[in-house]
Amino acid sequence: MCDGEIDKREREGAHEGDRPATTVVVGPDDDGLGAALADAGEAVSRVEGVPTGDALQAAGADEADLFVLTDVSEATTIAVVKESNPEVRVMVYDRGALPAFASGQADLAIDPALLGPETVAEELTNGAGG
Description:
CATH superfamily: Response regulator
Order of helices and strands: EHEHEHEHEH
Strand content: 15-25%
Number of strands: 5
Strand order of the largest sheet: 2-1-3-4-5
Largest sheet: 5 strands, parallel
Number of domains: 1
Radius of gyration: 13 Å
CATH class: Alpha Beta
């Protein structure tokens, strides 16, 4: 899947204005949270490689409902996304510790060793998907 490409497995009518809830995933997704969110009905786009402002915008981060960071070394992207989209929910899904400067901006941080991607996706979407 290319930067900014939307996963076609979308939840119909599950969000205000009958648009699917949207999620942007930044970083490697070795644990498969992006796929689990898509299976749960989220429209998922990804930024792989360096998450520049342009790449984040192309992925739709400025209008996303959920921003998932899977690489804490890219924690500065949280501030960038929050600046353009203050209402976005931010979730960090990584085994590493989130730097202190970013911890106040994240709504949730989960270690993949503690909760698997399907459980996390179900909780984040309130089990609303397929």
